[in-house]
Design brief:
By secondary structure, the chain is mostly beta strands. Helices cover about 0% and strands about 45% of the residues. Strands 38, 40, 43, 44, 46 and 47 form a 6-stranded antiparallel sheet that branches. Strands 49, 50, 51, 53, 56 and 58 form a 6-stranded antiparallel sheet that branches.
């Protein structure tokens, strides 16, 4: 009987034994977050693989969220020094969804976590997997970036290869959590512009997937990402899936976008299996000449070629012509005479068995002169080859170490490389079978290859694992040294000018601790403290008070902790907001007023102290300025901002048990093809909001979120103070409550987020809800003018079969001279704004669009059980607050 390798049996085995991917691992610090992606479509298994790169134990907190911000689950575990932990994300009900995960390490540590994805082969197949690959860790880009797409099938035939471009606004964006907009340009192989697509108002934490190339059939080209704000941080990667006519797959892999360069570095080349190896090079902007140099495994030149590029064109060079059969080597591309924008270069490998394509992978990262790491897994009889490309001109003996799952070091002999040479190190020969662990080498390692065999011993699939581009922290930005001398790295964009710059490395004057990123976990032994660096880029001349709004998780008792601001103001925390019920959710605390003389422009030190009981977490920090003095009852805020919030605790844990009717997506793409998805977690940072968190006197009872009852939530627009540009009015009769708001700010047809007002609500009955707003045209007599505003839901997910929404969405009405509950989106084809909400607390935001649009009250109703009636909803009392 033939021996059968079972992927699923390994996945369900002890110790979460799974596939691996090797990587050059980033530095991290206490409470630093590593952010990654997952994709539960296409029957894929997703694995989070974490490694401790220090010799001391650390605690890791894993939080899994969908892109609506709903918490799917979390886990906490201890990782021994140089230890490894694999966690199966499929245990968190991720099927037919996609989303993010966040891992937080405590205490200060170098650690890394990434996602491995695989699809099991059919039972009759002679190998374990149809494909296995790595989703890139979130690496923040700024300015223009690009990448190459290719929907041609290497096996021939008419079936195109799916190319899905994923664009993400990082959950902890350095631009104060702002939405971003950008243009996607598609060029053919000759560099001729074929298509432009706008991506509008991508909210923090939101991801959108765009089909590239394959809708037009088999195409080759270059995509270019041009953000409206060159300083905004974002991430992007392209996933390719090659599906056969019978529904099976020959390969899948992902490639990150990049800014381009004039030197590719030493990229790997190989024709083993046998394989086809192509060098793909594409111009990201300007015309230039380049020199391609190919070397064999010993570093000897096999030839060179001069290449000429026009803007946005690309060339594919067959490296088999240089290497010959069954050989390894390297190649390098360099601009001749420089280029204004440089190029993208990648090495593409296709392995065949006869006419059948067995595997494919892509390398886009050159060797590094620093230490290299790899994640080892020899289950399924897989060989683990650590690939090296030497960057040094001399022969070098490399110290090599291999660590087991529990961090125990195995005995390893040194490994030598010659100048400009290539070599593959057989880590599996040292590790042995059924092993997971960590590989370390002081050398320019480029990647790790996992080679899964077929039952006859030939190669069934090769999975390569690249190091992240940014090796200093989890988001790809350069680290900075803290004042205490420790390595510090940001959990937000390298462009951070945010008020919440949680990566600040300044030390607390009270305790000397390094400033920490959100969430701040204070749940150890008392007394303990954590320092947070609050950056205030400016302080308005008229400001008299700084208002701090905190969102806390597990705030059980009044007096559990205190907050010290700039070593001058000591404030007790929680008070009446504390509740034993907060152990499973977050609570927004009443705003803390700090006299302006106690704060300063630039870095302000917030020291949170845990003084009694089991502790708490601070998951979000927002600020606003007030023109009223501390103690005044009429303080109104302006120029508010918010921190990078953690998704770890902000959603109710009950949401993990809910069943979402999420947006429809084609599983064949293995990537959600929903046209949009919601913003990040319900506690995600607000976008340049000009409203404070306090409610007006007309709000419902209590100080928390509005509560859904019997499938209905209703609230007055004036329950939150008017944002900048909104006028509070009583001029037009027929409004409910104490007033209505009318937009008098700038016309904002293409840029939402002006005059943002925030409303929190809690869903107790999960299901599909419809959004309605009672509004009126307050200027002119035209039913198509002055009739719309923007709405943004932070939380929830699209409803299958309903018009999908994502990020800021326009809502409009078309009646003249009346208050109307008509609420539509999509021009020329009116669609309801509908969304699925699990149990939990969410955020809705309103911002101005058309001058003269008046908004009176807002509502949500569970439309499958509640019939909407204008008169009924107009006369309903405002929902109570929790």
């Amino acid at each position: 009987m033939k021996k059968r390798f079972s992927v699923l049996s390994i996945v369900s085995a002890v110790s979460f034994l799974t596939f691996f991917f090797g990587l050059c691992l980033p530095h991290a610090q206490a409470d630093q977050q590593s952010i990654g992606f997952w994709n539960g479509f296409n029957d894929q298994t997703n694995i989070v693989e974490c490694h401790n790169l220090t010799e001391e134990p650390i605690r890791l907190d894993l939080v899994v969220s969908d892109l609506s911000g709903a918490l799917l689950g979390d886990a906490t575990f201890t990782l021994e020094g140089t230890g490894t932990k694999h966690t199966i994300l499929n245990d968190f009900a991720i099927a037919n969804r996609y989303g993010t995960f966040t891992v937080t390490a405590t205490p200060a540590a170098r650690f890394s976590c990434h996602t491995a994805v695989y699809r099991a082969a059919r039972p009759e197949a002679s190998k374990a997997v149809e494909y296995a690959f790595v989703l890139p860790e979130l690496e923040t880009l700024q300015g223009t970036a690009a990448g190459l797409f290719n929907s041609f099938s290497p096996e021939g035939g008419s079936e195109p290869v799916f190319n899905w471009l994923s664009i993400v606004n990082p959950p902890a964006s350095g631009s104060v959590g702002d939405a971003i907009s950008l243009t996607v340009e598609l060029y053919d192989q000759a560099g001729v512009l074929q298509e432009k697509t706008r991506v509008e108002s991508l909210a923090p934490g939101e991801r959108r997937d765009i089909a590239v190339g394959h809708p037009q059939g088999q195409q080759v080209g270059l995509y270019r990402l041009v953000p409206d704000d060159a300083g905004a941080g974002y991430a992007a990667f392209l996933s390719r899936y090659a599906r056969r006519a019978d529904g099976s797959y020959s390969f899948a892999f992902a490639l990150p976008a990049g800014p381009g360069a004039c030197d590719s570095g030493m990229l790997p080349a190989s024709t083993f299996d046998p394989a086809l190896n192509w060098a793909e090079i594409g111009s990201v902007g300007s015309s230039f000449d380049a020199e391609l140099q190919v070397r064999d495994a010993s570093g000897n030149s096999l030839g060179s070629r001069t290449l000429s590029f026009t803007p946005f064109s690309q060339q594919h060079i067959n490296l088999n012509e240089f290497l010959g059969p069954q050989a390894i080597g390297s190649f390098r591309v360099q601009c001749a005479g420089g280029s204004a924008s440089g190029f993208i270069a990648q090495s593409m490998f296709y392995g065949f068995s006869g006419q059948s394509l067995e595997w494919a992978y892509a390398s886009s990262v050159a060797g590094s002169a620093g230490e290299g790491w790899g994640s080892l897994n020899t289950f399924l009889n897989a060989a683990n080859w650590q690939r090296f490309v030497s960057l040094d001109a001399s022969t070098t003996e490399l110290p090599v170490a291999i660590y087991s799952e529990t961090g125990q070091q195995l005995s390893v002999a040194p490994f030598s490389t010659a100048g400009a040479a290539s070599a593959d190190y057989a880590a599996h020969a040292v590790a042995g079978p059924d092993f997971i662990g960590l590989f370390e080498a002081k050398a320019g390692t480029t990647e790790t290859l996992r080679v899964f065999p077929k039952v006859d011993g030939t190669i069934g699939y090769i999975m390569n694992v690249r190091p992240p581009h940014g090796q200093e922290n989890s988001l790809g930005s350069s680290s900075s040294s803290s004042s205490s001398g420790s390595s510090s790295s940001s959990s937000s964009s390298s462009s951070s000018s945010s008020s919440s710059s949680s990566s600040s490395s300044s030390s607390s004057s009270s305790g000397g601790s390094v400033a920490s990123a959100l969430p701040l976990r204070l749940d150890g032994k008392t007394p303990e403290e954590k320092t947070y660096a609050l950056e205030l880029p400016t302080i308005p001349a008229t400001a008299k008070t700084l208002l701090l709004t905190l969102e806390a998780y597990d705030a059980d008792q009044a007096g559990e902790g205190t907050l010290v601001v700039n070593n001058a103001v000591d404030v007790p925390l929680f008070g009446s907001a504390a509740s034993s019920k907060n152990g499973s959710k977050s609570v927004t605390l009443p705003a803390i007023a700090i006299a302006i003389e106690h704060v300063k422009k630039g870095t302000n030190t917030l020291v949170f102290r845990h003084t009694k009981t089991q502790g708490f977490r601070i998951v979000d920090i927002r600020y606003a300025f007030s023109t009223s003095a501390v103690g005044s009852s009429s303080s109104s805020s302006s120029s508010s901002s918010s921190s990078s919030s953690s998704s770890s605790s902000s959603s109710s844990s009950s949401s993990s048990s809910s069943s979402s009717s999420s947006s429809s997506s084609s599983s064949s793409s293995s990537s959600s093809s929903s046209s949009s998805s919601s913003s990040s977690s319900s506690s995600s940072s607000s976008s340049s909001s000009s409203s404070s968190s306090s409610s007006s006197s007309s709000g419902g009872s209590g100080s928390g979120a509005f509560k859904e009852q019997n499938g209905i939530v209703v609230w007055e627009i004036e329950s939150t103070a008017p944002g900048t540009g909104w006028d509070k009015k009583t001029t037009i009769a027929g409004y409910t409550g104490s007033s209505y708001y009318e937009w008098d700010g700038p016309q904002s047809f293409s840029k939402p987020g002006n005059g943002t007002m925030t409303y929190r609500f809690t869903i107790n009955t999960p299901g599909n809800y419809e959004f309605r707003a009672r509004t009126r045209i307050a200027v002119g007599n035209d039913g198509t003018e002055h009739n719309d505003s923007w709405v943004l839901f932070e939380g929830g997910s699209n409803v299958s079969g309903e018009y999908p929404i994502g990020g800021w969405t326009k809502f409009y009405m078309g009646r003249k001279k009346v208050w109307s509950w008509d609420t539509w989106t999509k021009d020329h084809d009116p669609q309801y704004i509908r969304r699925y909400f699990a149990k939990g607390t969410y955020t809705l935001k309103i911002s101005g669009r058309s001058v003269g649009h008046a908004v009176d009250r807002l509502s949500l109703h569970k439309y499958d059980s509640v019939t909407f009636n204008d008169s009924t909803f107009t006369n309903l009392s405002q929902s109570p607050k929790q």
